[in-house]
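[job 0412] stage=fold_complex status=start
inputs:
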Amino acid sequence: MIQTQDLTKKFDEFLAVDGINIDVAAGQVLTLLGPNGAGKTTTVRMLTSVLMPTSGTAQVAGYDVIQQADKVRACVGVLTESHGLYRRMNAMEYLDFFGELYGMPAAARHRRSEFLLEKFGLADSSRKRLGEYSKGMRQKLALVRAMIHDPSVLLLDEPTSAMDPESARMVRDSILSLRSDERTIVLCTHNLNEAEELADQIAIIQQGKIISYGTLAELKQQFLGLPEFEVRFAAPVDHFPDLPHGIVSNEHGEDWLRFWTADPRTQNPLVLQALIDQKFPVVGLQEVERSLESAYLEAVNHHPANGNHHG
Amino acid sequence: MADRFQPVWIIAKREIRDQFRDWRIIFPIVILTLGFPFLMNFTAQQMLNFVRGYGADIVGERLVPFLMMIVGFFPLSASLVIALDTFVGEKERGSIEPLLNTPLKDWQLYAGKLLAAIVPSLFGSFLGMSVYLGGLALQGVPLPEFELTILILLLTMVQAVVMVSGAVVVSSQATSVRAANLLSSFIIIPVALLIQGESILMFWGTFSTLWWTVFGLSMLSILLVRVGLAHFKREELLGREIDVLNFRWGWKTFRRQFAGGAKNLADWYLKAVPAAVKRMSPAILLTTIFAVIAVIIGILQLQRFPVKIAGLSLGNQLSQVMNLLPVFSAAPVLIIWLQNIRVQVVGLILGIFSFSILGFIPIFISMAISGYLVAMLVQNGVPALPLIVGLFLPHSIFEIPAIILSTSAVFQLGVLLATANPAKTVGEVWISALADWAKIIIGLVLPLLLIGAAIEAWITPRIALLLLH
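[job 0412] stage=fold_complex status=done
writing structure:
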């Protein structure tokens, strides 16, 4: 649904986006992570045909962002960094205005507006002037605006940044529901928990370049090494077991040990079998939790691009 | 067709509705539309009574349409504020990006904003003028003639379009509302001067000139809208954040365009200058046609302004001229050269402030006067062929191409400004166009004018004397 080939954007001498390649299928969520000024917003703006790439190409929903800009914009919904609502309008008028710009018939606009306002808990405030809305309400309305024409692609810049936890949960659930409706979503966020929960793919951008791109598991493996597992024993043990060939214990305590494996699906049963055969009182085996935050920090701090590379 | 204009109307409709919810816009419009005309009615009545007392009825007659024009103009001041805010204001409030993300085409967004700034103010103007005329009718004051009323309505309308389209251009190019307000002086001052000029014409009663003003302003509005559309770029609207003067970048851009990739002077003359002339060829053709028309107009003026010179003897006069212009004396050459350069600089200045239109004035005047002069001398018995070959041709062979090139270079400035160039910003377009102008002037016009001046001072009088004595 979204493909880019060496997408590049220069502003005079400043290289904002440097040869980005992404491929997001329908029903997938791609999360763009990166420090401020990394090039995430510029990438999103190129995907909406608002900024023209300096070089490279991109297709969104089958349309070329350079040649078919109007068509791209017609099938994309965008939540921008600043919501910029018209303060003297109310929510219904505001949504009606944008719906009309997207060519929706009046009845459909009205129906869709009511449905979305209800869904996001804004129905009671639908006749209130937008200038009186709270920050969170404005953000929700901006998200509703992005969805008013039921786009097949959604580009969301910090969709929950100003929201209270309950509203943020509501928005995350909506994103998951859109994903299951085969919508393609690109999410720019600094909220790594959100990224971890929602993303099918993650791209970490730094200084305009994608420094890492893959699934959550792939990213963790890339920056934090092989998955780590912990075995817990019922009581302290006086010696340590012999593990199957190729499995190395990296850490251990009185009643636990940890090991890495590249292939837990086949190796973990073998480890368990070996422990049971050696009469160890195993009470549990679980993966050691490693956060996306650790992988992200490792990526941005130790990547050669930023000069902090230690190794 | 209607579908293409539908988004324009959607944008305009929203903005107009929004404006009518803002008391800061409504209040002055209501005051200027409904309150001010009554004051003008009162003024008109008092003035009429006063001047009648002194038998100066004509002053009163002229005052009535003049005040109508003023009543119509005042609500337009609100349009300037609205228009200056259109793009840059939305940018500052962060509401422009959602609009840019919609399937609107650039021209639809631009036209919608333009319409939204024009319609309410024009509505105010027309309403104000109606209230004023209604008041006059109730007071039994004779209303302006129908043609004059139409003229004032049209004048108000084109003034509104000029002001708004100029302000929208400023708004789409400025980086902040503050910068747009500062730049608005470039609209306010010329319009203030225009109103003063129109007032004089109104009192003078030269209404035909006012019709030409309507025509000129209509052309200017078309050009301003064209320039605005040509340089409206979504990307720049989002990308431009700071407006720091960058002299180094400006100079680099100018030098690059001026050099045109040439490595040395010979290379510059052989490649860069011809390339610039080639780029200007449509402008050169048009200017040449214009020059020919100017000559014909000059010749035709002889019928309106005939001059009879009794006992004309060009030979004696040429002998006196030769005494003033001794061969190889540099002073007369320099005087002629500097005068011609000054005219070209005036052409540039006039052109810069009028999208090149007024840049045609120097060539028009020169060619028309030449045409008139030749026709007048021929009418007074000087033989045509020796006159043209002797008195005009020797230096004109150099000077006419020089002023055609110079005028074309000024014309090209306006053309480039009114032409969309997706690869360049407005600043780059301007600097590049100025560099091309400088290239033509330094590379061709100045040398040609210098040769022309030398021939005019040293050779032309002698050839003319030989042929005409």
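[job 0412] summary: Chain A touches chain B through 30 residues (CB under 8 Å).
[job 0412] exit 0
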